[in-house]
Amino acid sequence: MCEYCPWLDMTKPDYVHYHDEEWGVPLFDDQKLFEFITLESAQAGLSWYTILMKRDNYRLAFDNFNPNKISLYDDKKVLELLGNSGIIRNKLKIRATINNAAKFLEIQKEFGSFAKYQWQFVNGKPIVSTIKTAGDYVSTSKESEIFAKDLKKRGFKFLGPTTVYAHMQACGMVNDHSLNCHRRAQVLDSYKELGL
């Protein structure tokens, strides 16, 4: 029988699927990275599961996380989004998403891709943790603090060190699968295929 990370609620099949298919897998696709950043910033102060359950609604509401389209949203679109019960109807978070889309595009232009920019904070290689129990998890790291500080300097909003660390975990910059989790070794094996 497979073992799992201690934080995972095994009674939620969609959460298990997210853990088994996405969490901790190194990600280099810019549109997907923007999706993760948008969802992490929406999560601030809420549970990740709450956001995960609204992800399909976010895809519909925010043009499938296309930063080119989102960066052009106007006040009329903000009002429309505020009326959408399928997403977190927080005006500051919605405006932050629009703002972050524009900043995301600036980084793409400067670095060639957001992935190239993002992965520099771990020198292009995932940090592999040694987690035995739920108490071993951390909510920030020196890398997430540097990454968040740089994002802030570039004008991003709702992306502090804790939110950025969660983003790093989600997109595989950090492998925080616990030592006994069946996914840890699988993710480690994937590094060779990815040239990491």
Automatic annotation (TrEMBL):
Gene Ontology MF terms in the entry: DNA-3-methyladenine glycosylase activity; metal ion binding
Family annotation (InterPro entries): Adenine_glyco, DNA-3mA_glycosylase, DNA_glycosylase
Organism domain of life: Bacteria
List of residues binding Zn(2+): C5, H19, H177, C181
Keyword presence, Metal-binding: yes
Keywords carried by this UniProt record: Metal-binding, Zinc
Pfam families tied to this protein: Adenine_glyco (PF03352)
Single biological process term from Gene Ontology: base-excision repair
PANTHER family: DNA-3-METHYLADENINE GLYCOSYLASE 1, DNA-3-METHYLADENINE GLYCOSYLASE I
Protein name per UniProt: DNA-3-methyladenine glycosylase I
Organism: Pseudoalteromonas denitrificans DSM 6059
